[in-house]
Design brief:
The structure is a single chain. With 93 residues, the protein is of the alpha+beta class. The chain has one domain (10-80). It has one helix and two strands, in the order H-E-E. The chain has a two-stranded antiparallel sheet with strand order 1-2. The longest helix is centred in the first third of the chain and has 14 residues, at 10-23. The radius of gyration is 16 Å and the shape is globular. The chain starts with 9 loop residues before the first helix and ends in a 13-residue tail after the last strand. The model has no long low-confidence stretch (mean pLDDT 75). It comes from Roseateles asaccharophilus. This is 2'-5' RNA ligase.
């Protein structure tokens, strides 16, 4: 499921990540922020569904590579983000 538009700052973060990957001899052809609903759905949805916005706190950024069968992600590196001064428990959790 792809988000509508790109979150503020995503372009800059992605450009920095791609730059650092290139310096390390790796290529990152592209990425869009998304949520995977199901890798094994029996068929694609035939309609577009509107899902209300969900706000959640991001406290960590992971660099992963996806591979294998069953498909999974291997964490290459991770970075903790600073906790905002006012943190609230979100209804998602």
């Amino acid at each position: 499921m792809l988000g509508r538009g790109r979150p503020t700052g995503f372009k800059d973060v992605l450009a920095n990540v791609r730059h650092e990957l290139r310096l390390s001899g790796l290529d990152a052809p592209g990425h869009s922020p998304h949520v995977t609903i199901s890798y094994r759905a029996p068929e694609p949805l035939q309609v577009t569904l509107a899902i209300r916005s969900i706000t959640w706190l991001i406290d960590e950024v992971l660099l992963v590579v996806g591979h294998g069968m069953p498909y999974h992600y291997e964490v290459i590196d991770r970075w903790k983000l600073a906790v905002p001064p006012v943190s609230r428990q979100l209804s998602l959790f």
